[in-house]
UniProtKB/TrEMBL annotation:
Residues 137-315 form the Gfo/Idh/MocA-like oxidoreductase C-terminal domain. This is Gfo/Idh/MocA family oxidoreductase. It comes from Heyndrickxia shackletonii. Belongs to the Gfo/Idh/MocA family. InterPro entries: Gfo/Idh/MocA-like_OxRdtase_C, Gfo/Idh/MocA-like_OxRdtase_N, Gfo/Idh/MocA_Oxidoreductases, NAD(P)-bd_dom_sf. Pfam families: GFO_IDH_MocA, GFO_IDH_MocA_C. GO terms for molecular function: nucleotide binding.
Length: 326
């Protein structure tokens, strides 16, 4: 496998995490990193040394040594930067959610596909062993007939203390619906096919710039299995993140991304203890490199990102004014 030149645009919270995975991969060389925050570039120059550091993303996108661009800027900048990267014939790994509207997501997917470039997204849970364990339980038929799928994400505060930045609680591009729900939507559609017939109620705070405080949504899969999305912030409760599949014989729950609980009828749910941790981000990077080299790879493509966006926009389409007229 030849070494792949990588450029990174956006080196904030998640960008730095994926940068570490790139740095660990023997077939990657980091050519350059862009962030509009000069303090971040200064810190990077001290920690990783000799790479191109720039506040202008064109220095990455137009750089001929770069094969793959990883884009981890806030959501509303995904579309313009990804499209420019594709125009410059770069393979792209993009953060979730893919875009800030369905039209943007469709243009990104179709352009990448038409140009025959590798297009992948960072849905990390998909690469975790916890999800693989959950998947095995589902495939082994230990759940019996699946009756309901439920996603529950409750937060004492949104944003959480450790993720404060200038966009994550804005109605324009933040909120837990955009930040958290895509992970579950991707897993559900990967496991069971398209979600449809969504009805959602979204509650908002008085400040029209701030993101939602509540979500209740129902929908169903093509085979009729019902779904519930339940999100709440500012609640007098500890943080709770659960993705549960209810069956006639058994129940399986993914909690906090890493923990799987399983229980059979009339038994308590028990944590599955022997799930070995893996470097799931390194696995993601490895799969993106395989795809670039033309080898079989496990990727979440922009097509799946578009399908997630379809559901996301449906969840968000509820208008505050409708709430007021009820
Ligand atoms: N895959 C995951 O599990 C996961 C987790 C958290 C966040 N995310 C997604 O990753 C993206 C980034 O999230 P974050 O938490 O790292 O945010 P962040 O605000 O911590 O980092 C974003 C970085 O992008 C920089 N930036 C902004 N505009 C830029 C531009 N035009 N050019 C270059 N740099 C620019 C900012 O200075 C900042 O350092 C978001 O889309 C978010 O939804 C994904």
């Amino acid at each position: 496998m030849k070494k792949i030149g990588v450029g990174i645009i956006g080196a904030g919270g998640v960008g730095k995490r994926v940068l570490e995975a790139f740095l660990k991969h023997p077939k990657v060389f980091i050519v350059g990193i862009c962030d509009v925050n000069e303090k971040i570039l200064q810190e990077l120059s001290e920690s990783i040394g000799e790479v191109l550091l720039s506040t202008n993303h064109l220095d990455i996108i137009e750089n001929e040594q770069i094969d793959l661009v990883y884009i981890a800027v806030p959501p509303k900048y995904h579309y313009p930067i990804v499209m420019e990267a594709l125009e410059n014939n770069k393979h792209v790994l993009c953060e979730k959610p893919l875009a800030n509207s369905l039209q943007e997501a469709e243009a990104m997917w179709k352009t990448a596909d038409e140009k025959d470039l590798v297009h992948a997204m960072n849905f990390p849970t998909y690469y975790r062993n916890a999800f693989k364990t959950m998947n095995q339980i589902i495939e082994s038929n230990r759940l019996g007939t699946i009756q309901r799928i439920q996603v529950k994400s409750h937060f004492p505060d949104w944003p959480r203390e450790w993720q404060k930045n200038n966009w994550i609680n804005t109605r324009e591009q933040g909120g837990f619906i955009r930040e958290i729900m895509p992970h579950y939507i991707q897993l559900i559609q990967h496991l069971f096919g398209r979600i449809q017939d969504l009805h959602s109620i979204v509650t908002f705070p008085e400040n029209c710039r701030q993101s939602e405080t509540g979500l209740i949504a129902t929908g169903q899969l093509e085979n009729g299995i019902p779904l519930i999305f339940d999100g709440l912030s500012g609640t007098a409760e500890n943080e709770l993140m659960e993705f549960t599949i209810y069956g006639s014989y058994g129940i399986v729950t993914l909690k906090d991304w890493n923990n799987v609980f399983f229980g059979e009828k009339n038994q308590a749910l028990t944590k599955i203890e022997d799930i070995s941790p893996i470097n799931h981000l390194l696995d993601l990077v490895d799969n993106v490199l395989k795809a670039i080299n033309g080898d079989p790879a496990t990727l979440v493509t922009f097509k799946e990102g578009y399908e997630v966006q379809r559901i996301l926009e449906n969840l968000l389409s509820y208008k505050e004014t409708e709430l007021q007229t009820i």
